Amino acid sequence: MAEAKWYVVHTYSGYENKVKANIEKTIENNKHLAEQILEVRVPLEDVVEIKNGVKRTVQKKLFPGYVLLNMEMNDDTWYVVRNTRGVTGFVGPGSKPIPLTDAEMKPLGIKSENLMVDFAEGDSISVVAGVWKDTVGVVQRMDYGKQTATINVELFGRETPVEIGFAEIRKL
Known about the structure:
This protein is about 15% helix and about 40% strand. The strands form 3 sheets. A 5-stranded antiparallel sheet has the order 10-9-8-7-11, with no helix packed on it. A 4-stranded antiparallel sheet has the order 2-5-1-6, with helices on one face. Strands 3-4 form a two-stranded antiparallel ribbon. With about 170 residues, the chain is α+β, with helices and mostly antiparallel strands. The longest helix has 14 residues, at about 15-30. It has 2 domains: about 5-110, Alpha-Beta Plaits, CATH 3.30.70; about 125-170, SH3 type barrels, CATH 2.30.30.
C-alpha cells in the first residue's frame, strides 16, 4: 500500500465546502476508498471583523478555491477526486499531482510525522502541560492527523470534552 500524502485540489471559487462534502459522501458510499482518502480539509482562519462598530470573529477560507486531501495517490483515488463536481483539477504540472512537502504543511498546522503514543482510547491519562495541567481523564477519541486526544474533564459540574495535544499527555 502506498503512503498517504497531502495534495491540493483546485475548485470553483465558493465551492470548497461543497467539494469537501461530495468527496466525503463518495468515501462513505465506497468503503474501499475510506482507507485511501483519509482526510479532506478546507483550511480556515479566524479573522476579526469590525462592522458598524461591532467586533466579531469570523472564519474565512485560508485558500479560497482550494481543498486539501490526505490520500494515497493511485488511479482510483485520482479518478474519484478529479471527477467530483466542482473540482477543476489537482495542483501540479499537467495532470500529475504533486504532494505538499513538510515545510509547506507546517504553517497549516498539519503534522505529517506520526507520533507513537503509549495510550489509546479508553486509557486513563494525566495532562502534564498546558492549561489543563494536572487534570486526569479518560481518552474518548484520538485524532492522529492533528495529533490530539479528546478527554472528558469536569467543568462547572458537567463532563466537557477537551482536545489536548499528544505531547501534553502521560498515561497513568
